[in-house]
Design brief:
A six-stranded mixed sheet has the order 3-4-5-9-6-7, with helices on one face. It has a five-stranded mixed sheet with strand order 2-1-10-11-8. The protein is 32% helix and 21% strand. The termini are far apart. The chain has 243 residues and is α/β, with parallel strands linked by helices. The protein has a single domain (5-241), classed as Purple Acid Phosphatase, chain A, domain 2 (4-Layer Sandwich), CATH 3.60.21. It binds zinc ion. Zinc ion is lined by residues 11, 13, 39, 64, 66, 152, 154.
């Protein structure tokens, strides 16, 4: 009898093809539980479908900035034009009930013995990006669990806090209870680290091991849907280059 194996998903961004591929991979890896770090919607052409798939899993979800933007009728001035176009389009695809579901999601959640957040633990509603040790250190000050998973940057990086904070790329992490870990699982729907494969992480609680997974998927189908929907061409192009 082995313990729970968690799949940690983030930044699905309405990419149904990437999500299907990742769900298949997770099942093959004997995942028993799912957690979603937010940004289920925005950018790609299947926000409603992706949201319903995640709701069907019944897993804990935290709110991302796109989940928030797409669930209110806030003015989009000051937004990057690409993001504003996608947010406007996505709002029109979601029902009032779906928007309320997204708006009501918590910003931070404790799941089993770890924490889930979209952006940072120090100011989760300010949507700051964590790329460097100094930025991770601010979150560590608020981290009560050994492990916290985060998303938002679409770049899978892991930070460790022992006597000081260090960080960088990772494939596998062995968790020591003497340290703390702030771990980005990358993005399923729009990777930005130059690798166009969908990214997620598996956390085996019993073996205290985190593994990053990269999963190829049929991205030409996703690009086709973006073009058909009239979403910005740049959103289709970036999927292929992973930026
Ligand atoms: Zn995102």
């Amino acid at each position: 009898m082995s313990g729970p194996i968690y799949a940690i998903f983030s930044d699905i961004h309405g990419n149904a093809e990437a999500l299907s591929a990742v769900l298949k991979d997770a099942a093959e890896q004997r995942v028993t539980q799912y957690v979603c770090l937010g940004d289920v919607v925005g950018y790609n052409a299947n926000p409603s479908e992706c949201l319903e798939q995640m709701r069907a899993l019944g897993c804990p979800i935290v709110r991302g900035n796109h989940d928030q933007y797409c669930s209110f009728d806030d003015d989009l001035t000051g937004f990057h034009p690409l993001a504003a176009d996608a947010v406007g389009w996505t709002r029109r695809q979601l029902s009032a009930e779906q928007q309320k579901f997204l708006a009501d999601l918590p910003l931070v959640r404790r799941v089993a013995n770890f924490t889930a957040v979209h952006s940072t633990l120090d100011m989760p509603d300010m949507w700051g990006y964590v790329f460097e040790s100094l930025e991770a250190e601010a979150s560590f000050n608020y981290q009560m669990t050994t492990v916290c998973f985060y998303g938002h940057t679409h770049v899978p990086l892991a930070f460790e806090k022992a006597s000081e904070v260090t960080g960088g790329l990772y494939n596998r992490l062995k968790i020591s209870l003497e340290k703390k870990y702030f771990v980005n699982v990358g993005s399923i729907g729009q990777p930005r680290d130059g690798d166009n494969r969908a990214s997620y992480a598996i956390y085996d609680l019993e073996n205290k091991e985190i593994q990053l997974r990269r999963v190829p998927y049929e991205l030409t189908a996703t690009q086709e849907k973006i073009r058909k929907a009239g979403l910005p061409e740049r959103l289709a192009v970036r999927l292929a280059i992973g930026r």
